[in-house]
Every structure is written in C-alpha cells, then in structure tokens.
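Weekly structure sync - notes
Attendees: PM, LS, DV (DV joined late)
Agenda: review two folding runs queued last week.

Item 1: First target. Sequence and structure tokens pasted below for the record.
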Amino acid sequence: MSSVNKVVIAYSGGLDTSVIVKWLQEEYQCEVVTFTADIGQGEEVEPARAKAQALGVKEIYIDDLREEYAKDYVFPMFRANTIYEGEYLLGTSIARPLIAKRLIEIANETNADAISHGATGKGNDQVRFELGAYALKPGIQVIAPWREWDLNSRDKLMAYCEQHSIPVEMKRGKKSPFSMDANLLHISYEGGNLEDPWSEAEDDMWRWTVAPEDAPDKPTYLNISYQHGDIVAIDGETMSPATVIEYLNKVAGDNGVGRLDIVENRCGYEITRLL
C-alpha cells in the first residue's frame, strides 16, 4: 500500500462504505474522514454520524447539499437540455461532480492526501467521481477498494463486519433485486429482472409515481414562472430550486408522469428504470 496519512471517503453509512472505513484503517493504517451528502435521496443522513463514530472516526462531515445541487447542477443541466443519447436524463451522473467537489474541499480543509469512494470497479460512477476529483486537484490520490480487495460478495462483507465488530444491520431478510440510486431529481434502478429487456418492472418498484392507469382522469394545471430560464415560482408561490423539484416530483408522480425505461450504453450496458 502506498503511504497515506489521511483519506476522505464518500460515506453513506451502509454496509459497503462502513466496511471500507475499517478496511482503510486496517490496510492503509491511516486516519479516515467521512463525508455524507444529503442530495435529497429521501433517507435520513444524520444516523451516519453515530455509525462513523462507532468506527473511531474523529472528523465527520454531514452536509445538506440539496439547494446547491438543484441550483448549480440540475437547473443549468435543464437550461442546456442535456439528455444523454437522446433518452437518459442524467439524474445519477449530474450529482457526482458535486460530491467529488465537496470531497476535494474537505480533503483541503483536513489536509488529507487521498479520497475514497464505494463505486465498484466495473461501472461509470468510478469515472465520474475520479475524473471530477482529478480535475479539481490533479495530485490527489484516489483509493477505490473494489478494485483492490477480495471482498467481492455480500457474505464476505458481512463476515468482515463480524470479524471487526462493525456496527451494521446484520439481518438477512428479503433483499431488493435492484441496484438503486436516489436523489432530489430521480430514482434509477438496474439489475434483477430489469436486465431482461422483455421483462416489465415490478409494480412495487415505483416509489414516486402512480401507474398512468391509476392517475386522475382530470388534468392538473400548474402556472410556472421562470426567471433567466429557471423556475422561480409555481402558482404564484416563490420557491427555492430544491423546493421546486420536490413539489414537481410530487405533482407529476401523482399524475402518472415521470417513468422512463431505457437501455443505456456505458462501459458495457445497463437496463435502467427511472422515476
């Protein structure tokens, strides 16, 4: 292992990143700083603090980035009408530069010489995180455990937790067959039966939208006000960028609007279902 004194990790508090924290401490013999971003994923992020403390982490960052995400990333993307390959709405990828930026800012604040993430070594999220980090700080070292370790299954991860007394949920109940990513803008799914293009998404997968056949038979009308290309008010009520997105998600979802089913071309391919 190369010499690392301190590393900042993008930390969710889940199984993978909890293992990564301990693994970094053990393998690199370094201090770990955790960074948890609230970008509107719909889950409480504060519990990550207690989990990080239980792992011996002294410097813990938990940041509410919802407004910055909406104002400086989502809205400019909307103004540019940025759609990947004519279909994919970039709901997952547009959040990665923000997370990478904050990782580098924290690395600078804490004098860390490396950052780390939990993206696997076979997809494009690792590229998004790492190129964003290198663009902002070319000399930063990136540690991607999934490209280094042999903990390549859930059973191995759980065994590592037990061996090192890592406080994670040990219940082995029904596990979602999907890989899911959620933020203020969308939810995306891949994996499971979605890998078969002939297979329909299961009804209980959709969290934010009702099926079109279950939507109201009467239309819902909104009066949307814009300023410099960005929404600033709905039905005369001034709203912040994040509030705008939250409100429109609710109204659109109640009306059966917002489902997309695509095959995405990336480093390989994926079947993705989006909110």
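Item 2: Second target, run right after the first with the same settings.
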Amino acid sequence: MDIRNIGVVGAGTMGIGVSHAFAEAGFTVALVDIDERALERAKTEIERNVRFYPLLRKEAPARPASDVLQNISFSTGLAALGNAQFVVENATENWGVKQGIFPGLDEVCPEECVLAVNTSAIPITKVAALTGRPDRVIGTHFMNPAPLKPLVEVIRGYHTSADTVRLTQDILAGIGKESIVVEDSPGFVTNRVLMLTINEAIFLLHEGVSSVRDIDRLFKKCFGHTMGPLETADLIGLDTILYSLEVLLENFDDPKYRPCVLLKQLVDAGLHGRKNGKGFYTYDERGQIREEADRG
C-alpha cells in the first residue's frame, strides 16, 4: 500500500517533531490537537526547527520552511483524520487521556489505517484493546527531537500483525529512520533502563551526593554520553518522566520504579524542563542551557 497521508495526534513536543519529520520527507500530514494555541505554537516551532536543525546536522535545509508547512494541516477535530493511512498518537503519558482518544480514532480512521502509539511506557496491547483493529495497532517510540534522531523503537503488541510491522518499518525508512522491533512490555527496552537511570540521578541530587552539572559531567566524560541523565530528563520533560515511572510502578508493582519525591515536587511546581524553559537547568528561547536552575 502506498502511504502518503499521515495523521498526528497531539501538538506537544513529540507531535511537533513527528509532524516535522514526515512533512519534510514529503508526506501530507494532518496534525490534530484540542488546543488551538498548541497548534499555533506548533506552526511556529516547526518553522523555526526547519531552519535550525540543519545547522546541527551541518547540512543545508532539505526543504524551505514554507514547503514543509504547506504539507501540514492543523485541526482541533479527529474528523481531519478521515483520510489518514497511518496515524501517530502522541498525547501525554496518561492512560485516561489515551482511553478517550483511541475509540475516536477507531471510529473516524479508514479500516486499513494503522494506529501507532508514540508512548514512553504504556503497553501497546492495552491500547489496542480500545479498538476494533488490534492487529493494526503498533508502538512507535520516537526519540526527541524526532527529526534528528536516527532510530525508532517499534513495539509489537500481542495482536500486531506481521504486515503491520513491515508497513511501519517501511514508512519509517521513508523518513530516513532505522527501526528496531521489540516485544510489548511496559517501558519496552529504552525506558525500562533510562527511567531508572534518570530517577536514580534525581535521588543522588535530592540526597546531596552531587550537583546537577557534576552528575551530568560524570556521564558525559566517563561514558561518552552526549547528554547526562538530568539534561536528558529536561529534554524529555519532567512530567513525562514522572508519568512513565508511575506507569512502570503500576505495571510491575516493583518499588525500584518509585519516583523520587524531588521529581514530584518539580513537576508540581511547573518545572517541566526544556519545553517550558526550566527544569534542572534554565533554557533560552532556542532551548539552549543558560545555567543550572535555582530550585529555591
């Protein structure tokens, strides 16, 4: 099947990145969010990122920003996905939110449309059970920022068909992404490991063992990581880290996933990381670190 029409649900950080990646590769994208202000921010962010990301890749822009934006329509209703052939859902890591989205997608999307769940931890099989097409529900765990990261973790649910897996990998290859298929388990491979690492780094900070900068420097200098665990937490979003740990704790019933009280406090204080300018670090308008954040 020739896939050209992509649906994206959620105009947050990941929805913006996924829409950008598909539109830049020439796909027609319908981006849906219930918040018109989020859609306006998405337009601004995509236009900025189309110009900015090539500087990070040290290459010329693949397409002018105007061409990329022409490939994206913005809507507040799921009805805009009536012609979608492949949908990527990027709503917040909250089961209650996803419960409300997927029955609606199942109703409005064509029967052959694949529904991809871009989630950090929620089991794909659990999401598929909300639909009448569990064989066409699959996990696509994009990394942030989606246009720059070369690999996507693809998660096969209990009912996901081999055709759906092949189709998904072909589509990802069409936007220049490699993919690795893993079996369905809360957190999959990447976040089973990453969330524990980040949470333990937050515990170390909370206990006064080391500072934000020094924790991150140890991982970058000793292990060659591009980013330390606390900078990575800011990039992902501290609210997303907390939601993911809570999902892992609920599903595995293992106290090793218990979120650090400092993480809960920062999320309650509205410090969500790079996306709103302050987390473990403070950020300028281009998302660059200015300094370690003062947490009072």
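Discussion on item 2: The first helix runs from residue 13 to 24.
Action: LS to circulate a short write-up before next sync.
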